[in-house]
Amino acid sequence: MRCLPVALSLLLASVWSAPSFAQSRAQLGPLCTSEGTPADQQIDACNKIIALKVFKGGQLATVHFWRAVGWNKKGDYDKVISDTTEGIRLAPDQALYNLRGSAYFDKGENDIAIADFNDALKLGPASGLILHNRANAYKAKHDYAKALADYNEAIRLYPGEAYFYDNRGSTKLKLGDLDGALADVNEAIRLNPRLPAPLITRTVIWRAKGNFDRAIADGSDAIRLAKSNVPLAVLTPPGSVLIAGYIHRALAYEAKGDVEHAKDDYRSTLQGTASDAGSKSNQATAKVRLSLLSDIAPTPRDAPADPAQPQKADSAPQGQTTSPPASPDSASRGKRMALVIGNGAYTHVKALPNPSNDARAVAKSLRDIGFAVTEGVDLDRAKMQKMTRDFLRDAAQAQLAVVYYAGHGVQIDGRNYLIPVDVELKSGASMTASMIDMDTIMAGLDDHVRTNILVFDACRNNPIAPQVAAAGTNRAIEGASGLAAPTSLGSGATLGAGTLIAFATAPGQVALDGEGANSPFSAALSRHIGTPGLEVQQMLTRVRAEVVSGTKNKQVPWSNSSLLGEVYLAEK
């Protein structure tokens, strides 16, 4: 939740004091400059004041500030930025920088937001509210140390604000400090028991602790409060609280095994209008989860099916195998699940000799260290989609999920796609209809209480360039290297908390399929992935060094992480 500064020098200007404006001041002035004015009325009043061309400098900047507040209530962040930028040009002020920074934050542009909050702090005395807003941006960047420092200082300056404790608690949650998070959130609820946001955070905490009934109860209270139109901070994105309440209660229902109630809540999540980056991410997750649960036949609500029930190996489709954890004590460490797919026997594009070998080698290494592995080799689209969806559905109960893919991949219009073995492009056909969208996999795994490791050895040469020309399409395939790290992942902004994503080579470069039985990347990965006591990022560093040496600097693996601490795939 973002807040406006308490003391705003802009707001001290009497925007309706000029004699030429006396006739309208009783109506337009208060309507334009009040937090409580409905958005459309506020914008209209400010428009009329600006049209009079009476004010200049700081007074005109104040009107632009308040019109920006109106746009913010509507979730139109581009217009917020336009008005605050004009206000800053006229008369730079803390309030304008804070409001513009909050708009950039809601758009997901956290670095620009932090720069604006920094400028706001330079223009006036230390403000707990601006420090809190900057902390939110640091948290979104997964820079939790800086976020906690700002929250601590904000609470020192202004100890009675519930939002500060709630957001500090959510940061502790991301760091795995569940008890510390719970203490902060309980204090937020004590300070303001009518706020839904702390109850939503506590919903996530209870789910992380495995107490699904308490999570559902808190989620229900949060939704009730959000529907009762409890006054929220003026910078709270419209509809965001209700969307968050529904998605987290849905995840709690799903973790409990109550599929029908989970589906109801995912539908409700999608009914809201998402204007900010967080709400859009929540809706992307809800869309995937709802689609996954829709494959399950309805069951009585008082006797939910157990989504954690493993699939029997003898019922797996052709090309797919499943295995239980290698050791019985692995269950005590939480569910550790892996999806491993290797596609090489392509029918209509260049075949690859090694992905099937790569997948089998990685799958064996994961089984050996206690993972329940779902393995597929040379899958067509139907089988690949089913296996992926089954895994994503079951991963709702996992504490650690690993996804590994070897084969052809491609980036189109900024999105990555994994390519089944039966892919075939025809003139006029949708290029992506026969592929598996990697963004869907990432959205399906996005969660606050699970660690995700995604590894893609899929940056071989673009397999479909000749077919693109034949199909007469004008959609952009970026570069000639097939699947590659999206540009948006450069800052880690699109990674969910607790996620690491690794590619066999750097963005825009080509990964080698190898001349032996395995690709250079997968050979190194399968050797090191089971090393006891080796933290996953250290493991990938060893893999990177081996690949760079083995390929004589032709291939440099790339990874990006928002992991919240040390993660060990194999026991120490």
Low-confidence stretches: 5-16, 18-23, 300-333, 468-482, 486-494
Output the number of helix runs.
21
The proportion of residues forming helix, as a percent range, comes to: 40-55%
Largest sheet: 7 strands, mixed
- Residue-averaged pLDDT, rounded? 82
Total strand segments: 10
> What order do the strands of the largest sheet run in, or round the barrel if closed?
1-3-2-4-8-9-10
Helix-strand makeup class: alpha/beta
User: What best-fitting shape do the alpha-carbon axes yield?
Assistant: globular
Estimate the strand proportion.
5-15%
Cα end-to-end separation: 40 Å
The whole-angstrom Rg is 26 Å
Oligomer: single chain
Question: Can you characterise this structure?
Answer:
This protein is an alpha/beta fold. The chain has 21 helices and ten strands. The strands form two sheets. A seven-stranded mixed β-sheet has the order 1-3-2-4-8-9-10, sandwiched between helices. The protein has a three-stranded antiparallel β-sheet with strand order 5-6-7. Helix 5 runs antiparallel to helix 6, helix 9 packs antiparallel against helix 10 and helix 10 runs antiparallel to helix 11. It is globular and about 80 Å long. About 15% of the residues have low confidence.
